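Re: the 278-residue chain
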Amino acid sequence: MVSLSILRTVGSFRTLSLTIRLVTSEPAVFKAVICPASCSVVGLAKDTWSSRSLRAIGKQRQLACNLSNVTTIRRCSTCNVPINCWKCKEPFDTSPTFFCSSCKIVQPPNEAVSFFSIMDCEDTFALDMHKLQKRYLHLQRSLHPDNFSQKSAEEQEYSAHQSALVNKAYSTLLKPLSRGLYLLELKGMRIDEGTDSGVDTEFLLELMEINEALEQAQTPEETDKISQDTKWKLKGLTAKIDDALRAGELQDAKELLAQMKYFSNIEEKVKEKLSGFM
């Protein structure tokens, strides 16, 4: 349970803010052969406070919970997107195109295509994970650079770029948090630097209780109980985020994703503590 002194301190806070910064990288360009822009992906940074640090700053009048150095994927404008095979000039019928249907040569990546299209998935938060993994394995077996070690320099380069793009798409869509942030970007939501989302006291207290319970857990059974509760919380948040995105309630989705980040961090702490009992 949260101590009375912490409750009094939290009750006196004037502002509880959670800052989410979404920063996009400058477009990078491949060699002269192609010119699609490249965007980088970095997950939300871990929250910078714990129940122990909260006690240490109990006399302060404000608590800032910052999620700093946040980057999400942003669809960048591109130029000269390939529409013909670079080798035989056969026009493409579909996008993305990994191999020419005529000469079977590997093609340069089209980074203007969404990650959902690359992984042949619906652009929705509730993905078919089995289908996602199956698609990933199929593409990597086909595009892995080792398969092109005896090919021309162009084919080796394109296979490496294609393989890297598939890895990026898969890793982004695999995790609910990065998948949700990516969907927000696709839906046109810009979160400017310095934008705050209010954190209500009830949610803050819940996080404090969980962190303190985890610190005080003495057995694997106690720790596993926290793990199961956290997984249940994450499952509920996943359903709520999916509903919010389907309804176009992007602000609600953003706030729920912020909550998901905190519970994901708790889940990681639980895993570390359980490994300590082994």
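The chain is about 50% helix and 5% strand.
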